[in-house]
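Interim report, section 4.2 (structural modelling).
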Amino acid sequence: MILAEFLSQLAALESAASPRITAAESLDAWTEVRNALVGRQAGEFTAIMNALGELAKEERREAGQRANGVKVALEEALETRRAQLAAAMAEQGPTLDPTMPARDRWRGTVHPVSLVIDEVVEIFRELGFTIALGPEAEHSWYNFGALNFPADHPAMDMHDTLYLGSEQVLRTHTSPVQVRTLQQYPPPVRILAPGNVYRRDFFDPSHAPMFAQIEGLVVDEGVSFADLKATLSHFARRYFGAHTRTRFRPSYFPFTEPSAEMDVQCGVCGGNGCGVCKQSGWVEILGAGMVHPAVLEAAGLDSEKYTGWAFGMGPARTAISRHGIPDIRVLYDSDVRFLEQFGR
Ligand code: DAH
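Predicted structure of the assembly:
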């Protein structure tokens, strides 16, 4: 290497450097250009300097001075560009907006049907009722036989009931818990049995093949229909409001005699008639009745000594009429946007 060549390489680097430095539009690009030019490992300036030792001794002084001048010029140009980029960024403001609201933290809520169950259970707890549970896969004797269903009752039909083999069924109601409880505990009995039940129904806006029920049962000596009426009317006033009116209509269930259905004056229209109550002014809330003597006997109790009353309600129906929900299926969708509206 001769001095002339060394100097011409330095000059070429210096003149090529300045457009490259001004072309850097970001601090990242600037860093890349700086490393390419004056980087200690692989910088182009360093590569030229490595040839300094190949020059004749008397040429090195001039070469070194010139190289130093180029280095200072490169560093000044780089620093100027860096300052420009930093100033532009400062003017633009931070890319993170500290005034942006934080994302809401999602918290689980109680399902609207569970909410109804909790509230109903709470009201009956005040009256001395405790909770009893039974299996969802139930023996057909508990589901039908012990509850006085006649052998040819259509509810036992394969088309209405989900059988698990010949004797086991997915319980079609929570009433079998009545018999299981009476077999296990001597009267006085006051229980509430919430739980899921299954029917071979289509999944449509008003039906689901699985839904919740709440069963109630009272058995003791001297229990009468007056207790049934008074207790259920009290429940309706506690649940729907102090001025809520109720009415009992005669009905039929194999496991109660007499049987009734309880209606509550429609809370949406106040009894004037609306879409929720189908213009009748009343909403059906539950089925009830005096426990049939055959049920008491099936559970091993003396029906001459003991009497009782029972009811069954569907909390999903209550949730639907309370919130004006048009399609029962939203209760099963697990759509957080729907469910989180019901948080307590
Ligand atoms: N088990 C009935 C059903 O699923 C509801 C019912 C009606 C339960 C009257 C009762 C009752 O305890 O007394 O349709």
